[in-house]
Amino acid sequence: MKKIFTLFFLICVTYTSQAQEAYSFSLDEAIQYALKNNYTVRNASLDIDAAEKQKWEATSFGLPQVDAGIDYQNWIKQQVSFIPSEIIGGEPGEFTPVVFGTKQNMNATVTVNQLIFDGSYLVGLQSAKTFLMISNLAKEKTDQTIREAVINAYGNVLVAQETLAILYKNKEVLEKNLNETRILLQNGFTEEQDFEQQQITLLNIENEINRSSRLETISKQALNITMGIPIETEVELTENLENLAIKSTDMQMLSQEFDLENHVDFRIADNQVLSDELLVKYEKSKSIPSINAFVNYSTFQYGDEIAFQDFDENWFDSSLFGISMKIPVFSSLQRSSRTQQAKINLMQSEIEKYEISENLKLQVSTAKNKYQFSLDQFQTSKKNLALAERIAEKEQIKFFEGLSSSIDLTNTQNQLFGSQQDYIQSILEIIQSKVELENALNLF
Which of 53, 121, 175, 376 sits between 20 and 30 A of 288, alpha carbons compared? Predict the structure, then answer.
């Protein structure tokens, strides 16, 4: 009973420690964690491992191949043949049943095959290397995509948290205003409409808080999935939105030169052209003779009783060496048709490569313009927020002094709320447009 209690206690402690496990990340730490633990990244790494094995598989095809076999036969009832009786002194025209061969026999064989020349094998080796390069490039592209996804997800969480903080602050101000308006209404210094108008504004803010709270939960779960963490795990973000905006402001990126040939998308397209070139070579290689050699050794034993343990009795050896050449002669233009198809695919890949290069140049130009606009928009939103705060503060004073209506106060408050959201959104756009520009310039 004591052992059972101890086991139960350990299980509870383990479960509790796992349930309380939490993570804390800066943005850079979140990116590095995702590049190791994201589900897509892990599969891309396994694809590279599979490509390595496939490369060796293609290489081993041209190395010596050794096969061995053992055959054992035991006639439970031996087959009967008939021979003319006169051969053994019998009557002419009659046949005598006889049994040929022994009751048991065994044959052991070892064969070594070696490819001497095959054009398709040489092309296959190049293709395996190219496939490995493609797998590595796919991993690099996956890392780039996941990095962008983490930055966007991280930013979305911070935006949701900052939005909630501002909404709660606005709610406090509105509740204070509502209480003061209630006092004025009770003393006959304002109309009931002013009190009701502020109630509407407060209810709208409370509704936004509920919506933003749900969005925050979803944003956190999305970040966890992107990083490869169970969605129920608590993750603390150590960055704040404004500091992230400052870190994302880099004017030098706008003058950064674009290295087309180093871009991962261009290299993927270039490798596709190389793959199609190898496919053309492969189809052409099918018209070239192939040469194979083999050497064989076998030993054979027979008898009514087989002496497995005695290798000096009734074992007969044989060995054979040979070379074979396969010469393609005529395929009714089948090989020619496949070669022409491969050439067409190559031309299409070259066109796609050129199209990708032009699109990448356009992508850089577009990303730079978007990043510049986001920087400008951030400064504008920051100034507008400061103006909206001063206007709302002045309008509030005027309202409680009886110099403006509740409609005017509501309008200025809504203007302030809109400016707050614009400011937060402008920060997110800086973060997102920067990573887009980094991807366009391939700055990793």
Answer: 53
Tens digit of each residue's pLDDT (9 = 90 or more) over 190-221: 788 888 888 998 999 999 999 999 999 999 99
Instruction: For strands 22-25 and 234-237, give the pairing.
Output: parallel
The whole-model pTM stands at 0.80
Closest CA to 428 of 255, 257, 236, 219: 219
Q: What is the Cα–Cα distance from 147 to 123, expressed in whole angstroms?
A: 36
Backbone phi and psi for residue 405, each to the nearest 5 degrees, phi listed first: -90, 170
| Residues in CB range of 145: below 8 A, 6 or more apart | 40
Annotate 286-325 with three-state secondary structure.
CCCCEEEEEEEEEEEEEECCCCCCCCCCCEEEEEEEEEEE
- 163-191: b or e for each residue (b if 16 or more CB lie within 10 Å)? bbebbeebeebbeebeeebeebbeeeebe
- Tens of pLDDT, residue by residue over 34-72, are 999 999 999 999 999 998 988 888 888 888 999 999 998
Q: E-assigned strands of 339-421?
A: none
